[in-house]
Amino acid sequence: MRRIYILIAVLTLTSFSISCKNQQGNELLLEVEALDKSYENLFVFYANLYDSGTGGFYDSPEKKTPPRIESTCRVISRLDDNGLINTVPEPIKKKWVGFLHSFQDSVTGFYDDPNEHRNIDMRRGRALGYVKGAFKRLGASTKYPYPKIKGNKDDEEVGLIHLKSVENFNHWMDNLGWEENPWRAGGTLSAQGNVIASLDGPLQEQIVEAVFDFLAENQNKNGFWGGGSLYVQLSGAFKVSSLYRFYEREMPNANRILKSTLKCIREGECRNSTWVRNPLNLLAVVKPYVVISEKEKKDIIKISIENVLRFSCNDGGFSNSLKDEFGTTDGCSQAIITRNALRDWVGLEPLNLPNTDSFLLTLQSN
After folding, report:
1. What is the pTM for the complete model shown?
2. Which residue among 15, 143, 225, 296 is least packed, with the fewest CB closer than 10 Å?
């Protein structure tokens, strides 16, 4: 009889535990679903950034700089993600393609936007990736051939010297300023992924191995790279993680990365919209190699929801920084990626954002 009572008690506790977990899961799911209310005017925001004269999109309603490669490609990506590309009239899509064509160098094949305030290595690498992605989504072709870099050491064109040999590339990686700003250093390195793919076969393979050797040798004990605040280190690790994902490599010290990421989001102040998205995408890379408890999962989701809402703006967009009054295409991209990542965490499909038909209606009424 005593055994029966013990069995009943165990079953009752187990049932209670499962019930609590299910209740917590349902609460998190509802909180994630409720996020969509903050995205209802996002496509009106995008449409109001369009410049029909150039065919490009401004980065924010302030329009401090001319339409740019990155801001235009971000809008194209978000439209395609929500099934809207085929609803856009062909003359408008041709203007988008023509705008991007205008930035390509006929000799090198690179795209270079002078309005992007980044170093040339990062600028070229990012632009190439953005444009390739946009053309794929639009079913468009590049005006001139994409870059094809040969290992000619006598060719000293600016921005390509580091790609002429493994020695050059190692020297370049050493001098990216990891201790000063691993976020920028990691971003510059990850932006080379598209450029490295343009190299001749043997040199490409050698440089890829040099990248992972360098990262393995220079990883911090906490799983991140470089110096600075924990959020800056985490953001550098996020940038680096794209290389591990692209080349299908396991990211080293996954458990340390998990622990440091949790410490960062629990204790640090999230002052930049990318700092909301970066932890989620970094964890997505290491997730197959770690065990994340229910408590940790709950913290990740709740903190991310609270943080992303802090960047919601009255103009319908999301800002880059807490101090910014206006939304930006970058801030919106971070918010959308965060929203989709959170839906994945609670087992929801990444459904289209709300009120997508407002894009064409607003575009055609302007």
Report:
1. 0.86
2. 15
